[in-house]
Amino acid sequence: MTTSDFLVQERQARIREKLAASGRVLAGDLAVEFSVSEDTIRRDLREMAAAGLCQRVYGGALAPIPPTAPFMERVTDQPERKRALARAAARSIEPAMLVFLDASSTNLAIAEEISASFGVTVATNAPRIATALMESVDVILIGGMVDRRVGGAVGGKASSDAGLLRPDLCILGACGVDAEAGITAFQLEDAEFKRMIARRSRAVMTTATVKKLGTAAPYDVIGIAECERLVVEHDADGEAIRDIVALGVEIIRADKI
Amino acid sequence: MTTSDFLVQERQARIREKLAASGRVLAGDLAVEFSVSEDTIRRDLREMAAAGLCQRVYGGALAPIPPTAPFMERVTDQPERKRALARAAARSIEPAMLVFLDASSTNLAIAEEISASFGVTVATNAPRIATALMESVDVILIGGMVDRRVGGAVGGKASSDAGLLRPDLCILGACGVDAEAGITAFQLEDAEFKRMIARRSRAVMTTATVKKLGTAAPYDVIGIAECERLVVEHDADGEAIRDIVALGVEIIRADKI
DNA sequence: AATCATGCACGTTGATGCACGTTTATGCAT
DNA sequence: ATGCATAAACGTGCATCAACGTGCATGATT
Predict the structure, then answer these.
(1) Are A75 and A34 members of one domain?
(2) N or C of chain A: less Cβ packing under 10 Å?
(3) What's the N-to-C CA distance of chain B in angstroms?
(4) Is residue A2 in some structural domain?
(5) What number is the ipTM of this complex?
(6) For residue B114, is it within any domain?
(7) Coil, strand, or helix at residue B215?
């Protein structure tokens, strides 16, 4: 094995601690600290980035943006991955549909894939998504109190508004996607809202970065089997989605970035 | 690597924070601050501009402007004048108020003057205004069908939503302001919406660039006497506002640009 | 034997500062 | 207001060096 005192997993756990503490790590520093080559550190960081545990940058790595960060912050996290997911998801949108996009950073990326030629109506509780779409397609805004962490209107008024709609397709933002736990969220009111609109929709689709697969956030939204389609990244681990497939959920893989 | 303490992405993230905070950055200052050459900063800014994260200008960069479109076209029309009006208007906003900002480009400028320290709740039918405010203050979103020319939700659903509110202060976007014609708008549904929310508010204030004074758009909103305050530019012609003053409307002049 | 973790070699890529001709903004004179 | 000179800022091309990822060999472990 190595002359270093650390097993791979230990080393990576330490790196994660450092990322959590200072927000960034330098490859050179880590190599010295762990008494390994920079090659090894780079492999670690690459592997961690592939698992969504850091952002790989020239010279080292940056902390991933926490999934509980406010919407406008989450939007800046892993944009290329979200764009790839968004492109794949947008292919499920057909002309004349009423599509619902709830407040999620990947849904903003999907909104940015929707042009006037889609010929759809989009309903959303997220002001940012409405802004992205209103010049291109018809937009129905869900009113109510805006929760800045969620990035959209949730709560009684928003649910009342959304309760007037029956979307053809609901594209659901998910904080966690797991065969057993289903689709989950970090905020209670967000989870309530998502569940309500999903159950009013003819079809439900969700998207998940590698980081979210096999994870569960604190609040249940819906079971995974209530979701017709799951869009995953091109390199999502087959193991992670095997049980989801077994529940009859159609898997769509995004293109390689 | 670099002799600087910052990874590229960190540097650009800081630049984005500065743009968000002050609306502009100077290349020379950034080079000193980050201990890199101005060449490097210029490359950063060029790259960020290409990604839509800033506007590249001689000497530095400005905060990005969203895509051009009807509402957004109005936003980019005479921004300095609107900012001056916005600053003057914002001084009428007091802590704990429920303020209503309908969809207007000057109201977006006003939204951008409102920080968390205002301690207010803002209700709006404009997604772009909600997006600008949701990180700073409590935002109540008015739902309904978004009219892209208006830049906000109007019509039956929006009126129904707004009908639940009684704002302390309604800041009304005006397309025309005239002693005889009063406050007028270019779209019928927009005029209906404005009238409804103005009449539910304790106080109404409006703003007018020199261009709008003494003009009338096709659809009546309210009479000028129903408006307590009118914010005009520092150089607004006394002749143009004389009759408005005679109707008991308080005039506030914006600062010189 | 197969697998995993590691370091090495090497060609490629990325970030940076320098040089330099071009462009822009500014101040001054008319 | 216009024209001119000047200095600062600009973008392009280039050289340099560090960082990068890939392929491979090696040693340790199962």
Answers:
(1) no
(2) N
(3) 45
(4) no
(5) 0.77
(6) yes
(7) coil
Mean pLDDT by 10 residues, chain A (257 residues): 66 91 91 90 90 88 86 82 92 96 95 93 96 93 95 95 96 93 94 96 94 88 95 82 90 85
Does residue B3 form part of some domain? no
Structure confidence by residue, pLDDT tens digits, B141-185: 999 999 989 999 999 999 999 999 999 999 999 999 988 889 999
Nearest to A24 among B7, B127, B138 (CB): B7
Full residue range of the structural domain in which residue A45 is found: 8-62
Q: Do B36 and B144 belong together in one domain?
A: no
Amino acid B74 CA to nucleotide D3 C1' distance, rounded Å: 37
Same domain, B97 and B190: yes
> In this structure, is residue B201 part of a structural domain?
yes
Mark whether B46 and B83 lie in a shared domain.
no
Task: Let me know: does B69 contact B85? Beta carbons within 8 Å.
Answer: no
Domain tally, chain A: 2
Å separating the CA of residue B3 from the C1' of nucleotide D23: 32
* A242 and A127 within one domain: yes
Nearest nucleotide over every DNA/RNA strand to the A60 CA, judged by C1': D19
Per the DSSP assignment, residues forming a β-bridge with A222 are A183
Verify whether the Cβ–Cβ distance A24 to B1 is below 8 Å. no
Q: Taking the C-alpha atoms of B40, B46, B50 and B54 in order, what is their torsion angle to the nearest 10 degrees?
A: 100
Task: Decide the pairing of beta strands A152-153 and A144-147.
Answer: antiparallel
